[in-house]
Design a protein that fits this description.
alpha/beta, Rossmann fold, Dehydroquinate synthase-like, alpha domain, two-stranded antiparallel ribbon, transmembrane, membrane
């Protein structure tokens, strides 16, 4: 059954369609007097270009499959291409693919002076979560966020069959775990019951969690949770030895532990770490990276940051980073990491 709703993030809105395959989601769309440009990854061009002709009006711009395709070089080439092509107006730009394509198409459309509409077709839950966050980012040469805009497309189409269940990894759970920690404790418990270990990811899809993803993503603070702590990894010596996905995971976890230090709320964090390790979340730090250096980086500006008041509460208090709380945060992380706990958490 096709679902349709008006999604709102702040003052921006987008029409969100999901619950069916892509051909069904698009079948009532018309393309009279419009030229269609599709920016996509190579794998989706190979798979869909002969099926998605858009009444013969489609032109394809094909990028690599790297989820970090949203960098300055690719943006420059895409701008050059669109400048040459969009003398034909009006036009419709469609971003189809992974999280990098979502960033690239959304960022271009938001800041471009060219006239056209934007539809986004994310290929997985992580890409959808990025679209729903209402932001688009261009990365610097080290993968660090360099430019960011607040934006939503006109329409979002989500077909869960674009990603095969056999391709799911722990990284696909990242947006759901972040939203669960900050906005819905019961979601964390449900995720644990459905995916107690890495092997469970191979046989189950994430479709049942689409509704909580949409609901929680509309809340203001939640998608930014962890970002200041993630950013600090890019600014710390030898941070390049951590993969970008590991920086994101650790940013969320350090932000959560810091909030627990500051507000002293109860959660079975050691057991939670044990579960994450069973899922295959990359928690172990490379020998070249020193947490003491990371702590110094965090304390350089002594920022005031939102500290979660209670797990899943969607309540935050702004608190200042201090030496005491930052190094207690690091000490707790080191305590949880090597041993963890051997019991299930609730």
């Amino acid at each position: 059954m096709m679902m349709e709703q008006r999604y709102q993030k702040g003052t921006a809105t987008a029409l969100l369609r999901y619950g069916q395959t892509l051909p069904v989601l698009l079948k009532d769309q018309h393309f009279d007097d419009v030229r269609v440009y599709i920016v996509t990854n190579q794998r989706f061009y190979d798979r869909l270009s002969t099926q998605m002709t858009f009444e013969g009006k489609a032109r394809w711009y094909v990028c690599g499959n790297d989820p970090h395709i949203n960098q300055f070089n690719e943006l420059r080439e895409f701008i050059r291409y669109m400048q040459e092509e969009t003398r034909y107006e009006p036009f419709l730009l469609i971003g189809l693919g992974n999280i990098g394509i979502m960033h690239l198409a959304n960022f271009f459309h938001t800041l471009s002076t060219m006239k056209g509409s934007l539809w986004l077709i994310p290929s997985n839950m992580r890409a959808l979560a990025q679209v729903l966050s209402g932001t688009a980012v261009i990365e610097g040469p080290l993968g660090e966020p360099a430019l960011q805009v607040a934006t939503l497309p006109q329409q979002v189409f989500f077909d869960t069959t674009l990603q095969q269940s056999a391709r799911f990894t722990a990284n696909d759970l990242l947006p759901l775990i972040r939203l669960g920690l900050t906005g819905d404790h019961a979601l964390i418990q449900t995720l644990y019951k459905n995916y107690p270990k890495q092997e469970a990811l191979l046989g189950k899809g994430l479709t049942p969690f689409l509704e909580p993803l949409i609901r929680l993503s509309s809340l203001d603070e939640l998608e930014n949770f962890g970002q200041p702590f993630t950013q600090a990894f890019y600014q710390t010596a030898n941070g390049q030895y951590l993969a970008d996905e590991q920086k994101q995971w650790l940013g969320i976890l350090f932000h959560f532990i810091w909030a627990q230090v500051v507000n002293d709320f109860t959660f079975q964090t050691g057991n939670f770490f044990t579960w994450l390790k069973r899922l295959g979340v990359p928690l172990d730090l490379p020998n070249q990276f020193l947490l003491s250096d990371y702590g110094v980086t965090l304390l350089q500006n002594r920022d005031w940051l939102p500290a979660l008041s209670e797990i899943g509460s969607n309540r935050f208090q702004r608190q200042q980073l201090t030496e005491t709380t930052v190094f207690e945060m690091i000490a707790r992380f080191q305590h949880y990491l090597p041993e963890g706990a051997q019991h299930e958490f609730q």
